[in-house]
Amino acid sequence: MKKNISLIGVPMDLGQTRRGVDMGPSAIRYADVTKELMQLGYTVEDLGDIEISRFEPSLEQEENLKNLVQVTDACSLLATKVDAAIQDNSFPLVLGGDHSIAIGTIAGVAKHYENLGVIWFDAHGDLNTPETTPSGNIHGMSLAINLGHGHPLLTKIHHKYPKIKPEHVVIIGARSLDEGERVFIKEHGIKVYTMHEIDRLGMSRVIDETMAYLKHTDGVHLSLDLDGLEPHDAPGVGTPVPGGITYREGHLAMEMLAASRMVTSAEFVEVNPILDERNRTAVVAVGLIASLFGQKIL
Ligand SMILES: NC(=[NH2+])NCCC[C@H](N)C(=O)O
Ligand SMILES: [Mn+2]
Ligand SMILES: [Mn+2]
Q: Looking at the DSSP assignment, which residues form a beta bridge with residue 92?
């Protein structure tokens, strides 16, 4: 892994409707993310937070694409920052914010990779489109947008279209999929390890298979939604779903990814301190980040 890490905070909460996830980047910083990474031998440059335009109640809302303009603006800025970090030979580590920010992160990363692989660690598919969304929340559409399906303002951010190919995506941890998302997965042949497969195969085999599946990519982005974890272990998230990945399975996955040296960029999203218990979820996020960057038990 690259020795320099660029930390980028994205205090975004407009991709969904539960306030508080905009404080995620601060919560993760308070949980000592920089210190942990420095102890592992990395140089960390904290680039601060992306500016988010505030919620405008007077603006006319599209019911099936809430806060489209603000999400587009923030993701464009984020894409530029991530792109510049990679240009600087630094590893972009993005802290959310809700999962709509993956539109910006992946837009910036994808410019540098012809065949970018994406590991989408999540209870959800985030594969809705304005036609299928049950909520109008863009955080439930961000993976579909990266695959080129959705509003053109979002799919065309940072000039490349589409950003990624369906055969280069692996979803891990899914247990809440909408009907339209199930159809999307089948139509595009997306590889999904639901909780069912994780239970049957074990996380170790799931990650081995994921690495083999992505071996033809030229970079791998990890997009980790904290709601992929079991809510008992990570309660501070806006859309918790029971029956998730355990604390230990999460760490094993990160440790195996670290050993593979495949991951070239990452983001940790959906930490909501208002819904959390004494910042536990941010602490869990920092632990997973440390494992991803090579922390070992012994
Ligand atoms: N990134 C997330 N937490 N996404 C939750 C999405 C929930 C639901 N599928 C929706 O489209 O609204
Ligand atoms: Mn998500
Ligand atoms: Mn989710």
A: 6
What number does the ligand 1 atom closest to the CA of 181 have?
A: 9
How close are the terminal C-alpha atoms of the chain, in Å? 20
Q: What is the whole-number distance in angstroms between the Cα of residue 128 and the centre of ligand 1?
A: 8
Q: Whose CA is nearest to atom 5 of ligand 1?
A: 140
What are phi and psi for residue 81, nearest 5 degrees? Answer: -65, -45
- Nearest residue (by CA) to ligand 1, atom 7, is 140
Q: Which pLDDT tens digit goes with each residue over 248-280?
A: 999 999 999 999 999 999 999 999 999 999 999
* Pairwise CA distance, residues 48 & 53, whole Å: 16
Closest C-alpha to 86, from 63, 60, 105: 105
Predicted TM-score (pTM) of the model is 0.98
ipTM of the complex: 0.97
Tell me: is residue 188 an annotated ligand-binding position.
no
